[in-house]
Amino acid sequence: MKPAIQDLIQKYLQGKATAEEKALVDAYYRSFAKEQPYTPYLTPQSKELLEEKIYAGILQNIEADPVPETKPNFKFITNPRAFYFSVAASFVGILLAFSYYFFIPQDQVVLTTALGQVATFTLPDNSKVTLNGNSELRYTPWSAHQTREVTLRGEAYFSVQHTKNHQKFLVHLPGKMQIEVLGTEFNVTGRPNNTRVVLNSGKVRLRLSNTQKNTPKEVEMEPGDMVELEPKSAKVAKIKVNPEKYSSWSSSMLVLDKTTLRELVSTLENTYGLQVTVPDTSLLRHTFSGKVPKQDAQILLLGLSKAFNLQITKKENQIIIQKH
């Protein structure tokens, strides 16, 4: 049985690891350095935080239990902080490899986007999925006779290929709903405070979970339909909308069609990771129509400010929106 990775790190820091244990640590580090597919599921912020925690732990251990002086077989690094960061980076790799080995199915594919990033991916059946910022899609590659299944956290636009054998395509929003399609285009949002599906073309069936007793468990959708699940009450609302409004984020322009400031605040917080304050809460009910560029948060904020005469103040990650 392999020793726990935490014990290996502790023994390594104290200079008590055996030659076999050192070889195991080296093997973990080499596997991490090869950029295996288990790394994309962590956001850059998570990696940075993990590295900082490990760095702090290394400093604490070195100060508490000095490693006996030995003759080095490597070049001396004059900057001790640089050395500690290099060791920390190694242990980040070890922990990632360890967590991947024990907790992530080795054949599972994880696709992610950073805050404000939009990226398009091709799935095994040549279907396309475009992920909005701060989103994640997981799936296990399927065969021609298996149901195509993916799990989404965040927001995505799907263009699903129809197969000759009418192979089902399922999108799971854990704890909320399951979307079943054959071949169609639709936008899905599955965030903590916002769950909705907007159908551009084709036909889909939603299977809902955790809804109220008088709410249907299945909902059929046609092009132009939007189904929204209220986060607190679990009520389901189905209305007709302009689908372009809800999928325009996948292009360079954001289409606003009687979009409330409350909706825009949600986009800024969920997609770009900003913390938004609107001192005059009545402003949240104001609606806006038009098109604004959205290449990044700064351009989007400038576009909103100019187009709708808003005073937007930005300090680092904090945003304040007021009337001019």
From TrEMBL:
Domain Protein FecR C-terminal: 254-321
Annotated keywords: Membrane, Transmembrane, Transmembrane helix
Highest taxon of the lineage: Bacteria
Domain FecR protein: 111-205
Residue ranges crossing the lipid bilayer per the database entry: 82-103
Gene Ontology MF, one: sigma factor antagonist activity
Name of the protein: FecR family protein
Organism annotation: Adhaeribacter swui
Lineage: Bacteria, Pseudomonadati, Bacteroidota, Cytophagia, Cytophagales
